[in-house]
Input
Amino acid sequence: MTIEYVNRKGQKYYLHQGTTKTGKPKYFFSMKTEGTLVKIIPDGFEIYENPNAQVFLRTVQPKIITDEEIATVEKGMKELSKLQNFKIDVKKDTVYVYTADQEKKELVEIFSSFSFATNENIVRSVNNCLSYSSMLRFVLFDEDKRIFTAERFCFLGSIDDWIDIGLPNTLQNLVKKYVKHLGRDSFYELH
Output
């Protein structure tokens, strides 16, 4: 049986194998069933779905960020942020907070005004079309003491990069201090 993966949008992907220019195997996911399909995930690899529901096969990542730390960020977002549409992603020593690029409530209202679909179907469709951008991240600064730094994405045309916001601290303190600004104008004043 071939490797299949259904992403959060309900799209089915199949794992394919190709070859690089040097003749080495390369792996990729596609919605197409044509080609060389893979039946077993190669050793040392894992399936990864990014916050925008794109599916990849990547090498197994070392677990640097703990489950408790991920839960701290998720809990902080639910309790302290006014945003309901967000995704948490972990890459190496960094926890990323992605926020929706669109306003879900406004999209539901727009689609409801000219659609005969049920509200449940409209909400499901809107959820599937939302895209996400990383806005805030927490980078592990001291692995032994579990101290992090907070950074926000800067959208000034000449910068378009991550900038530090504040001093290193515990993840819980940084979450409490910064996630409440997501989705507000005050976020862009953090530096």
About this structure: The chain is about 25% helix and 35% strand. The first helix runs from residue 67 to 80.
